[in-house]
Amino acid sequence: MSLRRPPLPRILLSNVSCMRNAQQILRHINVSVHDGGALVLTGSNGSGKTTFLRMLAGFSKPSAGQILWNGHDITQSGIFHQYKLQLNWLSLKDAINDKFTVLDNVQWFEVLEGKYGRSLPAIELMGLGRLAKDKSRILSMGQRKRLQLARLLAIDRPIWLLDEPSVALDDEGVKLLEYIISEHRKKGGIVIVATHLPIEIEDAMFLRLPARFPRKMTLTDMLDRSDFVAP
Ligand SMILES: Nc1ncnc2c1ncn2[C@@H]1O[C@H](COP(=O)(O)OP(=O)(O)OP(=O)(O)O)[C@@H](O)[C@H]1O
Fold it and tell me: Which residue intervals define the domain ABC transporter in the entry (predicted)?
């Protein structure tokens, strides 16, 4: 009988902690993500969701523990060089040049990636086809977000790191976001999302980061606690 080893997770966080300005933001995080997997980060404002994504993107390093990609520590320079080519980062800063057309704002990234022909279909899928030749400065907030999502599709890298991707999207936009996440995962892509808003992602793992500054207990909290005895 041959015993097959379980496949190595594509991404593994092993006992990862992160400090910012001498303050502990993330503490002892252990999580693994396989191809086709999705991880949803939730938690209150300031709990460290963006910090988590930035660490995965390599913008900051863990203060303890390791982030492994294919079993290799991403902070090693040779590995990081290959790892960063796998990443597609979507943040609240949209990096849209208002003077460029909608199409140019997607195509420019696609060309840098050495790819061709994906931008217009992506823009159309995201419902911006009619605006493709317009200057990006006329876009609404939700349309700007759709443009960012079109970029994800045009660049087409395997690991998506999405910081609040549904902010400013209408219901149809959220459905499109859910659709492209699902299609990406079917191809073996990985999606890691920080969000406050509900996004339907099938079989996603959820990681709720604890509040960094828990609010003070109110009288109601105290009365709700079964072990609380009034003085
Ligand atoms: N550059 C920095 N230097 C020092 N502290 C920082 C820095 N960036 C973020 N922080 C702190 O790290 C903590 C976590 O911030 P982070 O942006 O990761 O939270 P978040 O969960 O994404 O919050 P939100 O839900 O508001 O987007 C916050 O207390 C914040 O003040």
Answer: 11-229
